[in-house]
Amino acid sequence: MKNDLNVSLRPLRDKIDSIDEQLLQLLNARASIALEVGEVKKRFGASVFRPEREFQVISRLQKSNAGPLFGDNLAAIWREIMSASRALEKASTVVYLGPVGTYSEQAALSYFGQSMIGRPCPSLDEVFRSVEAGGADFGVIPVENSTEGVVSRTLDLLLQSPLSISGEIALPIHHNLMTQSGNLDGVMRICAHAQSLAQCQHWLTAHYSHLDRQAVSSNAEGARLAAKDATIGAIAGDAAAIQYGLQIAYSHIQDDPHNRTRFVVIGVLDPEATGYDQTSLILSVPNRAGAVVALLEPLARHGVSMTRFESRPAKSGAWEYFFYVDIEGHRNDLNVAAALEELQHHAAYYKILGSYPRAN
After folding, report:
1. Of residues 93, 147, 179, 261, which has the active-site annotation?
2. Among residues 55, 112, 128, 263, which one is catalytic?
């Protein structure tokens, strides 16, 4: 039977081998042209990485894709092709909340590809500091979770930092409970980031309410601790289990099966419009009746949709707030530009964090 199987598969495998050879030649031809593009960019002082261009390439291919490959799989393949081509010129150095094995690292890899130079940072503050100081080209930071809401420290740092947002990643979050043995025998506490503990609180209460829960700086840090101590269980993703040699006792323990976290890319890049963009702002208003309504009215009048509206205390002791707002469109779009021009006159504080391609 084995010989019959091999005989039946041989012509199909020969076809695949032939196609692979053609793909190899085409990929190298594409990489050669990408190098030429890089030389042109150098002459004009343009950035090697242009997220809006890569977004347009992937979107065009997804629209013309007849299958059987799915659109997301196609996007992942082309993102790696473009990542490898960029690395021939200059690999992007990307910092993220560490240690290795965090969802932040996963978000960075899904956006920049495997050819990036990734560097974990011990805190969100250090991610910002590293990019601001020129030690990295980009940073990847979590902004909000679909279950637990915004990451407050990220919002505070965006207010203080001169860096801009140039992209976003919406990452499905699937939490696993992992230990050294792959079971909970002898485990006395569970370590994870505070948000991850909150995202799994109902499951933990239903199954292991007797175990202590300890918030640590990241899920990967919890996994690192569990790898050293058999009495500790960790909540983290698949990458952390592999990185720290842990066994998954239970998978997909998040309370919301559609749990997602939104990450943004920070740096000094200013992407051009793609037709599928988002603009992020920070605003505040004078302390008078109807100020917030007057602030947002130009958006409605110019047909600009608002997709997020969050408030954070201004920490002035006077019950003042900053508003974090996301709107559809690029700030150079005619209707968005007109709305922002009017909005700015009503704002006591006005800061554009960036216009960038939206995550699919």
Report:
1. 261
2. 263
Span 54-102, pLDDT tens digits: 999 999 999 999 989 988 899 999 999 999 999 998 889 999 998 888 8
Specify the pTM.
Answer: 0.88
| 128: Cα separation from own chain's centroid | 15
d(CA 306, CA 132): 29
Torsions phi, psi for 256 (to 5 deg): -100, 115
Instruction: Dump pLDDT digits (tens) for 116-169.
Output: 999 999 999 999 999 999 999 999 999 998 878 888 899 999 999 999 999 999
Q: How far apart are CA 180 and CA 241, in angstroms?
A: 10
CA distance 25 to 307: 44
φ/ψ of residue 43, rounded to 5: -65, -30
Query: Active site includes 261?
Result: yes
- Give the span between the Cα atoms of 82 and 352, in whole angstroms: 29
CA dihedral for 108, 79, 248, 174, sign (positive or negative): positive
